Amino acid sequence: GVVHRDLKPENLLLASKLKGAAVKLADFGLAIEVQGDQQAWFGFAGTPGYLSPEVLRKDPYGKPVDMWACGVILYILLVGYPPFWDEDQHRLYQQIKAGAYDFPSPEWDTVTPEAKDLINKMLTINPAKRITATEALKHPWICQRSTVASMMHRQETVDCLKKFNARRKLKGAILTTMLATRNFSTTRILMNKNNDVEKNPHTTVIGGAHPKKYYSYPAVEP
């Protein structure tokens, strides 16, 4: 089998703009091939907010890392912001290793218990107890959507997703420039400009909590 190791929204593409279009998985640059349920230390790889606890602990890992990332993606798609976030990567990694996420009000009030249950099963710290892809496809929220999925359309979620995507694109453009120039002083200027931009309307306040800004930046080993 194949372990992608870098699943995130920007690596999920739609074959067309039509409703029900097939989803295509992109960017297999970090993917590895494993035999069955093989687990080993294949190296540190991925995007910070989507890394699994076992990767951060530098434990042997395998297919379950992709299911963890799917849980993060599902969380984002339902409310428009990630389950784990901190400007400081060390604190972010501590959150992930502790499985420290929740379903705050009011964003999650209209999300069904079945959807939350699937996320909980995907974001299980112990990879041996984490739901598998086969099991996930049999979960009620997937196979009984007509009876358990919420029909309530939340414009707030759509707006949050648009903001989340806009920040991702901005950060991606800056990182591309960083890699192209390989100039430290230029990088610092760009990052400072990015911070100034994100102090403006693109800051999202969640449930009355402190403003959160969402980045997609290279992973640094813990």
UniProtKB/TrEMBL annotation:
It comes from Acipenser persicus (Persian sturgeon). PANTHER family: SERINE/THREONINE-PROTEIN KINASE. SUPFAM superfamilies: Protein kinase-like (PK-like). The keyword ATP-binding does not apply. Keywords: Kinase, Transferase. The keyword Transferase applies. Pfam families: Pkinase. One of its GO terms (molecular function) is ATP binding. Residues 1-142 form the Protein kinase domain. This is Calcium/calmodulin-dependent protein kinase type II subunit delta.
